[in-house]
Amino acid sequence: MDTSAHLLARTGFDQRIGRRFRTVVLQPTSLCNLDCDYCYLPGRKKRNEILPTVVKAVAASIAEQDGDEPVGVVWHGGEPTALPITTFRARLQPFEDLRIAGRAEHSIQTNATLITEEWCELFRTYRFQVGVSIDGPVGANLNRVDRARRPAFDRIMRGIAVLREQQIPFSVICVVSPQTIADPDALMDFFAGLGCTQVGFKVAGYLAKARTGRKEEWTKAKHDPIPTIAWNGDTVLMSPELLGIGAPQHNDFVVGNVLSQSLPTILRHAHEVPYIAELLDGLDGCEQTCAFWDFCRGAHAGNRYFEHGTFAATETTHCRNTRQALVEAFAATTAATSTKE
Ligand code: SF4
To answer: Are 47 and 29 in contact (CB under 8 A)?
Structure first.
């Protein structure tokens, strides 16, 4: 890259993406006990466990980074609770000083099927925010199956019952489909009865800010680079879904390894990564063409690549279902409510 192209890449990156990470996603194990139809994770049948040196390096990266805001340490998967609980507890220890000092906050994204009282005790001790993946009522979860293709819904609900009995607050991440978003009332009724504290429809955060005159806080916020760390320290940026995906032309999206470079160092050079430059073109395209830009800000880097083979693409089926349809459904619900009033 010549000097002017290099400067342009740096400026484009800094306009849209933060160099500081607010969230780091860790893969405690690549193994998942389920085999959902829409799962993208190629290593989900392998039991790779995160190395002790990798968690130490991630904790050191958080300590190295400036800033007062705590970093969210998200234990994602595979299925995080497929890691033996004693190993999981040991992997939390390098973060303890940071957690106690308010510089790191743990969260876990789980399918809930393996939750026990012992896991609840761990969540309490280390103050985890718990997120459960469930897509709505039983009919909305037909894609969630185990390797024998048995439906997982009852096991998810059993895990949720344990969380409730143990009084562990939890939120829900829901993958919306054209079928479920067509009936948002049924979806919201189901989640209202589930006892969760929050459902991961990000539109609510946008509307809250827009209605209180703080829309700029949303529209000016830079994208979190979301470093996502594999069990062996390999690091991808911008989309946890890219981890483990084979793409030789993009070095499998691996931009570095925390065992040889800290995350702040990796991020200082992130504008030089070709797939991120491609994504910046995609974000420019979204801003120029999409009526939903103000709310969406061009999310879901991974889906651009999965659906179109390039990050420079703009609209995807995924963004139509999870962003555009969501805004339209919320707008319709709000309009119906104000008409009744
Ligand atoms: S809704 Fe789709 S096309 Fe519109 S800004 Fe978001 S990602 Fe881009």
So the answer is: yes
